[in-house]
Amino acid sequence: MRLTQVCKQHQKGKKPYNQNHSRNWEKMKFTPETYQIADERQKTFIDPKEIWDYLHAAKSSPERVRAIIRKSLDKNRLNLAEVAELANTKDPELIEEIKQGARLLKKKVYGNRIVLFAPLYVGNLCTNNCSYCGFRTSNKQAVRKTLDQQELIENVEALEENGQKRLILVYGEHPKYNADYIAETVRTVYQVKKGNGEIRRVNINAAPLNMEGFRKVAESGIGTYQIFQETYHPEAYAHYHQAGKKRDYDHRLVALDVAQEAGLDDVGIGALFGLYDWRFEVMALVRHTNHLEACYNVGPHTISFPRITDVDDFKVDPKYQVNDDDFTLLVAVLRLAVPYTGLILTAREPQAIRKEVLQFGCSQIDAGTKIELGAYAEDVVEKQNVNKEQFTINDERSLAEVIDELIDDEYLPSFCTACYRLGRTGEHFMEFSVPGFIKRYCTPNAILTLAEYIMDYASPEIAEKGWRVIDKNITQLNDEKQEENIRKRLDKIRAGERDLYY
Ligand code: SF4
Ligand code: SF4
User: Fold this and answer.
1) CA–centroid distance for 247 within its chain
2) Facing residues of 117 across strands?
3) Terminal CA-to-CA distance of the chain, rounded, Å?
4) What are the pLDDT digits (tens) for 271-304?
5) Residue 172 CB–ligand 1 contact under 6 Å
6) Residue 136, ligand 1, Cβ within 6 A
7) For the CA of 237, the nearest ligand
8) Which ligand has an atom closest to residue 266 CA?
9) Nearest protein Cα to ligand 2, atom 5
10) DSSP 49
11) Residue 71: helix, strand or coil by DSSP?
12) What percentage of the chain exceeds 90 in pLDDT?
């Protein structure tokens, strides 16, 4: 049985995810050994012709677009034909309706919390030559560096002193950064405690591993393992990736299947927008989501959609450049297409775009981001301003500045890590499907983690605003018993207790 056969049953986005698929997989009897040789999973489940056929057939009439928005607002999953219709919409008024639909859906599914995290680059050795990346092998100007144990600890301490609780560790793709190495760095990060600071969730962005490798990394206690396909179009992929292991499109495409088989069911997918047609990439991200849901009963935890700009000698093909209007539309379309998947918006985008796009569907953002290796603890690393970055960031605000703006814009900043630590896996599915999930867990946990931040790290001005937003959100829960319970916990936090969660 080919993957394409398994997933075509679900590509229409009909009923999700029954057990039959797992049984299909079991029948296929994959083992770590079989993965070492070519097996069925190494066949691609992306069919470019199929995606283009959907896009060419999409008519996007006002009636259809409105019906699709309504379907999504009823928390029904969209199929590929419907996603194509939204992505093809050109009428500015209809586009506005799509954005409003995404805004409404986001409120329904995620409430007003925004989860915050920071990336930590561990090392930039790399054997690949992705033409858009500052760490590519052919960039001889790149200063290669891997944080040693002490530097890693000092960077984590610096992040903790800012109030961060969730990190994503980023590694170049190099034999040095194997599963043992990644697992070791994860354990180190979890052990670092500075004052009341600690990192409670470590996510990973690194090369595909084999099954045993994914198991090892999972055992070190990671949250999400992210692997981005960059572009889902095979020919475009070949154009940008001409050396190193990463040039194997299929190997990368099925990497998260291997992770699932290894028991690592919390995975993140992404595309680098600007390498190929953005509509195609949106469709392919949804197709990848369908595939994971069909085969493993759980879709990706997160989708990322960084947008590439010109860097040094890499120039974005003007045909594929994603302008700001298309970017906001693509985020809104993704929100409506996959309501229960977290959408991550990074500091590659400038402040104004982040503020705009946040409304239409993003649930997680990075803040206080520094991508220069070792930059969080400047005093331990000699300052070198050039060629230690993978790309440029356009929102350089501190965590405190981002929190300040979020509160002004009526969001509830959150450092919550509760589900993962309580074993509530498939959390995104749960919050989508379990009535009251946000009210019972997400909002109270956002309140408690924001209170910790205020007590330990906030300036008096942010503290004052922060307590106000906490009060307002408690009142809006409209539940006396819950209010009393949260207020008791807030008293404990004021008295010095930490890490309280629901
Ligand atoms: Fe290496 Fe990743 Fe950069 Fe490609 S994108 S060159 S794999 S660090
Ligand atoms: Fe995420 Fe669970 Fe926390 Fe809600 S309660 S913010 S789903 S970890």
Assistant:
1) 23
2) 366
3) 43
4) 999 999 999 999 999 999 999 988 888 899 999 9
5) yes
6) yes
7) 1
8) 2
9) 442
10) H
11) helix
12) 77
Domain that holds residue 483: 439-494
Residue 43 has pLDDT above 80, yes or no: no
Indicate the pTM of the whole model.
0.90
In the predicted model, is pLDDT for residue 461 greater than 90? yes
**Residue 469, domain member (yes or no):** yes
CATH of the domain at 321: 3.20.20.70
Alpha-carbon distance of 430 to 435, in angstroms, equals: 9
Single-letter amino acid code for the residue at 436: G
Whether residues 400 and 445 share a domain: the answer is no
Write the single-letter amino acid at 429. Answer: F
Question: Ligand 2, from 106, 424, 442: best to mutate by most atoms within 8 Å of Cβ?
Answer: 442
Last residue of a domain, one of 433, 467, 484: 433
Whether residue 476 is found in the same domain as residue 392: no
- Judging by beta carbons within 10 Å of its beta carbon (0-12, 13-18, 19+), is residue 401 exposed, middle or buried? middle
Number of domains in the chain: 2
Closest residue to atom 6 of ligand 1, CA basis: 136
The pLDDT tens digits of the residues spanning 133-177 come to 999 999 999 999 999 999 999 999 999 999 999 999 999 999 999
CA distances (Å), origin 175, targets 124, 184, 188, 245, 485? 12, 15, 20, 11, 50
Q: Whose CA is nearest to atom 7 of ligand 2?
A: 427
Q: How far is the CA of 260 from the centre of ligand 1 (A)?
A: 23
Centre of ligand 1 to C-alpha 305, Å, is: 16
Most confident listed range (56-60, 107-111, 236-240): 236-240
Sign of CA dihedral 431, 436, 439, 440: negative
| Cβ atoms of 136 and 128 closer than 8 Å | yes
Judge if 307 and 423 occupy the same domain: yes
Percent of the chain that is helix, strand, coil (3-state, to 5): 50, 10, 40
- State whether the beta carbon of 241 lies less than 6 angstroms from ligand 1: no
Tens-digit pLDDT profile for residues 79-108: 999 999 999 999 999 999 999 999 999 988
Judge if 303 and 411 occupy the same domain.
Answer: yes
Residue 139 CB–ligand 1 contact under 6 Å: no
| Nearest atom (ligand 1) to Cα of 244 | 7
Strands (E), 161-247: 166-171, 193-194, 197-198, 201-205, 225-226
Query: What phi and psi, each to the nearest 5 degrees, are found at residue 277?
Result: -55, 125
